[in-house]
Write a structure and sequence with these properties.
The structure is a single chain. With about 200 residues, the chain is of the alpha+beta class. Helix content is about 20%, strand content about 35%. The chain contains five helices and eight strands, in the order E-E-E-H-H-H-E-H-E-E-H-E-E. It has a four-stranded antiparallel sheet with strand order 5-6-4-7, with helices on one face. Strands 1-2 form a two-stranded antiparallel sheet. Helix 1 packs across helix 2. The longest helix is centred in the C-terminal third of the chain and has 10 residues. It is elongated.
Length: about 200
C-alpha cells in the first residue's frame, strides 16, 4: 500500500513466480528519467538527504530526486560518504630513487587486519627541481621524484585508519599520516524541480 504522494503508487502491479512456484506481487520497476541537472552541490560534513530535499525542492521527501540524478552511487548514504566503508591513503616513505618496499609483504600485513576490504598500490613519478652538489658548486637540476602509497578500503566499525597505520609502523614500515578519502568536498548533481 502506497500513500497518495508516493512515486511508486502509479506503477503497474506485476505478479511473478518464485522457484518454488509461489506467486509474488510487486510493482514494476520505476524507470529513471534523464536528468536535467543544472546545479551542483558541494558535499559538507553536516549534509543530510532530507535537508537537501528541502533546500532544493522545498519538500524534504523529495531527496530521492537527488539520488536518481547520481546513480553512480550504490546507496543514498554512500552518496554522502556516511557508510561504514571508508577509504584512506597512506603514503610510504623510503628512498626516492627506488621502490621503498616489496608490495606483497606490505599488502599481506594490511589484508590480515579484520575489517580491511581492499588494498591497492598507488605509484607516481613527477619532475621536480632539486639542488645537487657538483664539485664545489650547488646546481639546480631536474630529477624524478618517486612516491608510493597504499589505498585501503575498510569497515570503520571494525578498524580505523589510525589502527591500520599503527599496524604498518609495528611491522617496520615508514609511513606518513593516513589521509581519509571521502565524499566531503565532492559534488552532487541536483536536478531541476519538476514543473507543476
Amino acid at each position: 500500500m502506497f500513500s497518495k504522494i508516493s512515486r511508486y503508487r502509479k506503477l503497474v502491479d506485476v505478479v511473478t513466480e518464485d522457484p518454488r512456484g509461489r506467486e509474488l506481487a510487486s510493482k514494476a520497476l520505476r524507470i529513471i528519467d534523464d536528468v536535467e541537472g543544472v546545479i551542483e552541490h558541494t558535499i559538507e560534513e553536516s549534509d543530510r538527504l532530507d535537508h537537501l530535499g528541502y533546500k532544493y525542492y522545498k519538500q524534504s521527501r523529495h531527496w530521492w530526486r537527488i539520488c536518481d540524478a547520481n546513480v553512480e552511487h550504490f546507496s543514498p548514504l554512500e552518496m554522502l560518504g556516511k557508510t561504514p566503508l571508508k577509504t584512506c591513503q597512506i603514503a610510504l616513505r623510503g628512498d626516492e630513487d627506488v621502490h621503498p618496499y616489496p608490495w606483497n609483504p606490505l599488502k599481506a600485513v594490511i589484508t590480515a587486519m579484520l575489517g580491511v576490504e581492499d588494498v591497492q598500490s598507488q605509484e607516481s613519478t613527477q619532475r621536480v627541481q632539486v639542488n645537487r652538489s657538483v664539485g664545489s658548486e650547488t646546481v639546480l637540476v631536474e630529477a624524478d621524484e618517486f612516491s608510493r602509497a597504499v589505498i585501503v578500503r575498510y569497515n570503520s566499525h571494525l578498524v580505523t585508519h589510525m589502527e591500520i597505520a599503527d599496524e604498518l609502523r609495528a611491522h617496520g614500515y615508514s609511513i606518513a599520516e593516513p589521509m581519509l578519502i571521502g565524499r566531503i568536498g565532492k559534488t552532487l548533481v541536483i536536478p531541476r524541480a519538476p514543473s507543476v
